[in-house]
Amino acid sequence: MNTDFLFEKYWDVTLLNYIIAGILLLTAFTLRRYLSNVLSKIIFSLLGKYADKRYLQLFQELVLHPFQGLIVTNFFYLAVQRVSPVIDDLTIIRRAASKGKEGMHVTLLDVIDLVFYFCLIFYVALLFSRILDFISRILIDSFIHRGDKVRQQVYPLVRDILKVLIWTISVFTILKTVFQVDVTALVAGLGIGGIAVAFALKDSLENLLASILIMIDKPFLIGDWVKVNGVEGVVEKLGFRHIQIRSFDKTVVSIPNKKLIDNNLENFSERGMRRVKFELGAVYGLSEATLKQVSDLLKEKIEDHPQTVGSATIQLDNFGDSSVNFAVAYFVQVSEGVDFGKVKEDINYIIYDIMYRYARGFPYPTATQLQGEEINEVTNGG
């Protein structure tokens, strides 16, 4: 079979090279997902102790995008190199040399080279960042399993600092490689303008410093129940800039770290329990025996709840306008896995059941109109 036609040139490029370039592009766009899965399995197997098969799907989800970007970028660049004589002839910028100025000649191939280096550096940085996320996730899961709250709190911050370092190095590399910036001179310039930069990053630096102080003082740990700046809930994350608290209505609230330093912080988990106190009304007309029976039953049932702590207090406190009032107080255990709102709900159902079984329910406010003359000892001179 005569294959001489494959070596015929069109615009200084053989037909064979055009075909190879087309195959490379077709491979990149049709097989990028398959190749990414293969590469992710290879890298996953090299992670040693982190290569638990339970986390394979998570790892693939994290690295799929950067691997696909790297595959398309490299295959596209290889394809371009096959037909580079054609692309190199396409001029984008041409400027002749003049007095005091150098000439400039930029071709499409020069631009593609710069875009290639930019994409390559970006996707490599993204890949390392995602792998760091994965390792951090594995470590944090293991700390949760072991109940190590200190490391649960430290590692997310360490991860964020390392990610900032990765992207900072990547930005400087792109500036030097792609934009031909003198990085040394740039860093020296930043030293001269350091005051301006410090003012621009004032809030971020304050939040970072606050997070470091929190790590040292440890006023709370992940999972603690706290109240700060009017927000009450469970600490879910201490980040680079802010703390995340999940309130009891399941809302996630982010508070800048510096506010933790500037405001009073209450850690309810440190005391191990939380008091519930309220007034409970019973109808008038019940006998002393019935009132004591209700009081004893309430005390017994509240103390029997598995997530209440210590002794409950049920006392006949005062006589209201339409009810005999008990002062009720009990303590709820504060620990991970205890839902304070659910415990209160359970106790309220118990109270409701006892009041209707033994105390004829709850009183309603009533008013009685009395017939007779108005008593007025002020204006009538009485």
The computed structural class is alpha+beta
Number of helices, where a helix is a run of at least 4 consecutive DSSP H or I residues: 11
Give the neighbour order of strands across the main sheet: 8-7-6-5-9
Q: What does the main sheet amount to? A: 5 strands, antiparallel
How many beta-strand runs?
A: 12
| Morphology | elongated
Counting copies of identical and different chains, the oligomeric state is single chain
Number of domains: 3
- Output the radius of gyration: 36 Å
The arrangement of helices and strands along the chain is EEHHHEEHHHHHEEEEHEEHEEH
Tell me the span between the first and last alpha carbons. 134 Å
Describe the structure.
- The chain is an alpha+beta fold.
- The protein folds into 3 domains: 189 residues, no CATH class; 56 residues, Roll (SH3 type barrels); 87 residues, 2-Layer Sandwich (Alpha-Beta Plaits), CATH 3.30.70.
- The chain has 11 helices and 12 strands.
- The strands form 4 sheets. It has a 5-stranded antiparallel sheet with strand order 8-7-6-5-9. It has a 3-stranded antiparallel sheet with strand order 10-12-11, with helices on one face.
- Helix 1 runs antiparallel to helix 2, helix 2 runs antiparallel to helix 4 and helix 4 runs antiparallel to helix 5.
- The longest helix has 39 residues.
- The protein is elongated.
- The N and C termini lie far apart (134 Å).
- The mean pLDDT is 80.
